[in-house]
Amino acid sequence: MEINIPASAIHSDTASPKCLTEDAIRKKGARTIKNYGMTAIHAPAWTATVERAAFKPCIKLKDVRLNRNIPLRKRRFMFADINPEDVAIHAPSGSQSANHAGKLWRQFGRIVKPEPRTSRSGSHPSTKKPCLALTLITIFAELITHNLNKSKMKKNLFLLLSLVTLSCYGQLRNADIYKIPEMEHGNIRSEIQIPDIDGFHTMKCDLHSHTVFSDGHVWPDVRTREAWQQGLDAIAITDHIEYRPRKSQLTGDHNEAYKIARKKGEELGIIVIHGTEITRNKPFGHMNALFITDANPLAITDSIAAIDIAIAQGGFIQWNHPGWPDNKSTLYPLHEQLIKDKKIHAVEVFNYNEYYPVAFNWCKTMNLAFTANSDIHELVTEIYGTDIRPMTLVFASERTEAGIKEALFAGRSVAFFNGHLAGRAEHLRALVKASIRMKVLNAEKNQVEIVNLSDIPYTFSSGGSQFSISGSQTIRATLPKTKMASVRNCFTGMDEYLTIDYSELKVAD
Ligand SMILES: [Zn+2]
Ligand SMILES: [Zn+2]
Fold first, then answer.
1. Which of 115, 241, 376, 438 has the most CB atoms within 10 Å of its CB?
2. What is the domain extent for residue 152?
3. Which residues surround ligand 1, an ion (CB under 5 A)?
4. Do residues 53 and 32 touch, judged by C-beta distance below 8 A?
5. pLDDT digit string (tens) for 200-217?
6. pLDDT tens for residues 126-160?
7. Is the domain of 330 the same as that of 304?
């Protein structure tokens, strides 16, 4: 956990007696103070690295090493202020760190109270302070006066660009109106760290969602914005084709929701997949037709004919939630025939808040793609809070819709839900190897340092002992002498876990 606080940003005239003062930092005698107890600034769990910054008015909370217990996905940058008279805080939001950042902000950020300003004419307060210009001048002056090396120069230029980009949010500030841009999260995306594998891009996809155009509760573009904010690469809009309770209010056809969501996707740079859910009673059940070109012709009574039409459009068929609604996951002869005829390509082994262990075996033995999806009807945060939502990890040769489609047809996917993964052993092994680095500290005692580069938590079991490593965490452990481990959050079949040789994870220094 490290926080960079330029000493010059820390004022001694703060109202809080517990606050770090510049003097206090100087007394520590060094340019850098490591492991400084942050109890002094109301953040008991923190340690800090304190150093002078290239330009004065900045508190920078480094995200990367801030708190390893907070998944990277929750570490969102927030520019609280860029007024050179105040203090800028770059902090993750939606997390404990953000709360601490908020406290820091309250302590440091408002030390200099904003003065009401008037325009040159004096008739109206100006909505544009010379904040940006001052900031730029300050930074350039610092860049010139400090004999900066190349990398520092790069870093400062990056910060400069960030400030230029974000400055527009911080400009409006006067007696009439005081904008608090850090309260608005609409433009913040939480990235989820999941590594690419074997030359493929790992695409984070939710292949099942609903809008008001069937029985969902949100307008279609909300689905796109949620998906973007939550770090997904792709979302499929799959409204029920047969069930449209708001049809009298919403006159659009079966493609309308997709079109609205897609438009937002083009704005945000996120892939929106055209789909629909063919919704019948068991034994047929519910099937998502994905990557279709026109949902309207699927609105027919013959379920198999609807699948045929989807497939003729190049569609990919996912058998949804096989254990719902009767809590029985039954592979009926109808499904066996559809699978044999290549009219079912994937099974949703996880849906909403439940998974179907027996379906792991179907995917494994019949070569079907594993998928996990939210089937969200409400707001995503209403159901999953700020946790990582369920998703299908798709290993695509290119980061495009066509890339995702090709990979799904080839069965290159893993279901990811609530810290669990289900998929083929080869894909799970590649994911674990790309996520976990193991460095030997003492070969004789078998002591290792294990780094998890992903936001996926892993649990390893071997030789009668078990340890877990959270997302983006580093731990030190003594391994049992056994070479092979069972990865308990990685399902390759019903009651079957991925096994991995520890030596596959070991790296040189
Ligand atoms: Zn359904
Ligand atoms: Zn559904």
1. 376
2. 4-183
3. 286, 320
4. no
5. 999 999 999 999 999 999
6. 333 334 444 454 454 444 444 444 555 555 555 55
7. yes
